[in-house]
Predict the 3D structure of the following.
Amino acid sequence: MKMNPIKDPFDPRIDVWNECGERSADPEVTSPETLSPDDERFLKKRELQNSEDEHGVRALESSVMQGLFKTDITRRRFLKRVGAAAAFAMVGQFFPIQSLKAMADDAKKNLEKKKLTIGFVPITCATPIVAGHGLGFYQKYGLDVDIVKTAGWAVSRDNCLNGQYDGSHLLFPMPPAMSMGLGSTRQPWRVVSNVNTNGQAIVLANKHKDKRDAKKWKGFRFAVPFEYSMHNFLLRMVVAEAGLDPDQDIQIRVVPPPEMVANLRAGNVDGYLAPDPFCQRAVYDGVGFIHKLTMELWDQHPCCVFSVSERFIQENPNTFTVLSMAILEATAVAQQRENRAHFADVMAPRAYLNQPPEVLRQILTGIFPDGLGGIRRVPERISFMPFPTQSMGIWVLTQMKRWGYLKEDINYQDIAKELIISSTTEKMMRNLEKSNDEVTFTDIPDQPYPVYNIMGREFDPQAAEEYLAGFDIIR
Amino acid sequence: MKPSLETLRSALLASLFFGIFIFIWYALTVPRSGDRAIFELSEEEVAQLDELGMAMEDRLYYLESGLDFEQLWQLAEMQFTREEIEMAGGIEAFGFQRQENGEAEVRSHFPTPGQVFSVGWEMIRDPFYDNGPNDKGIGLQLAYSLRRVALGFGLAVLVAIPLGFIMGMSRLFSEALMPFVQILKPISPLAWMPLALYTIKDAEQSSIFVIFICSVWPLLINTMFGVATVRKDWLAIGRTLELGRFQMAGQIILPAAAPTVFTGMKISIGISWLVIVAAEMLIGGTGMGYFVWNEWNGLNIDSMIVAIFVIGVVGYVLDWIIGFGQKAVRYVD
């Protein structure tokens, strides 16, 4: 029989929340442990049920009980007085544990599809999707998910469009591009949630240690992971803000993330704006240094998303909900600082990121050497804030327009509303918070169109045209 | 058959070449790094660190790990605890260490022959492990690649040999089709791949298609050439014996052209093996090409070298197998 790591909160004989199972020092609770035969039977039955506790019911109960009693002493006192079975019935009246459970269970019972294939590119942005697999988040939700490592974003996109992936880790601008038929056939894909925020950096080759000012980058060759990427848009903006034209004065090449360090080492590129681990890996291998973290450009900027096609949502509404909840929960757990080192170790093996664990730890803990001799402590170097705001989507669309990827005039708000299903995501996040006490989200804004500060410029999504008009360099 | 003196001598020479190669490799890659520099602190520096609250125990640990005063001072000033540093992968991974000559310690360098052999041994010892879709043993990866090659190459044989026969026997057909063959022949598999992915919409079938489209031409041209150059007197004999069209093809032309056809097959299978590695690097998932790519993205040069070596050996074996067929149909004029 499998042991459940969470102890039964209705057992008056043991401490549940006190570490190491030490006994509460209270004469009443440590008095001779006699149970009524009723309670004995009740607890025995729970123990048997518990071996098949797939849905985390016990965790739910435990958190409800902790909310009620705060400490083990008060809880055990209460249970001793009224009896475990009676207490269970009483608590159940006030806290509908059963119905909370039912909501998640309902979707789980009616899964249209259990066996799923999800694509990912081996970068730390994919932490919730990858570590979610390694730590069994999908299993917990009753799904059998294969995650498939993909060589680059173009292949990811093609595998999404031709139906090989049920859902995928994509760059934020990719679902919009796919939905509008930019650079591929047109197929509606939706942004469900951010799998990460921040987590990128501008890395320069060691020989450019004296060129920390973007104005000196004329003639540089930069790499970005894909045309439709935050990386491309942010790099273009950095360069343009320094007065250089990103299409004339520098060269921007598309290089799949895994090949970036090798290209930097070979001197093929002077630098890149890329996802980790390939920024920190350049430092680890002594070929480059971290010039700037992207969070210094736009704090909590989106980067990669979990995305599915509109068709998948229509055909598999329950599967979609359950899968998204699994990923959202993994995202929330990844955000908790105390889990970061563990997540790093889970992702290191060949099946996942295939990187030295210490590099991943440096990234996820935010304590890292910058390649210039310094150590930095930036806890939010990579964050996992899942909520995709409409403003993020509108910014992406304005950048597509700014750099000529998007030719026609569009209504940014309408398109963003269609692409970014943030109200659905919000519902799922709220549900998750209710049903799982360990999950809290702090990133759902009060208003649908938050204003952002991006590289010192205010971006008000409701004045997108004016924002674009404020740039000198524009296509 | 006793090995002749000739074979013995060539084997000796080959071993000598191999030995020289390994020696040069070793000489170029042996870590020349000196000992790690261990710094000593003056009393004043120790006092400064104390003032920042660095415990003596930590100070000694960091010094032993090769950090200098400035780095220690940074750690102390930022109030890093040892626990935090361990969470972040440990101080060794920060790359602060210097050698005694002042140069930075090189963390990754081209592997020595010894490293490659030990990694290779590890890989070959357990070739069939399967840790999910992204991590399989080298034996399984080989099987995936070989399966794709078998399908793509098999398809090429099915198409190229009959078509080659028709083109070889009919001048009209050969002249009409030749321009297409000539244009399609030099196209790289990497150029076909995106087009295939886009139209076929299946990574597996796309890679098989690319193998097919790249390996079909040499086989086609060789078959055609073999059929077209069957000696005229043999055909004349056939005609005097009043053989029918099909008898002629089966009993005279086929045996006569077979050696050339097999030469074409040898070239084709070689090309298939070249193509599959390139294709798998592009599509990912499984196979030797994916394996090489995956090791490259982790910058594990040692296992990459092992994989490259295995690819070479398997290519040789494929060639050797076709060689068997070639021997069976050889004839002397």
User: Anything to note?
Assistant: Chain B is about 70% helix and 0% strand. Chain B touches chain A through 46 residues (CB under 8 Å). Chain B has a mean pLDDT of 86.
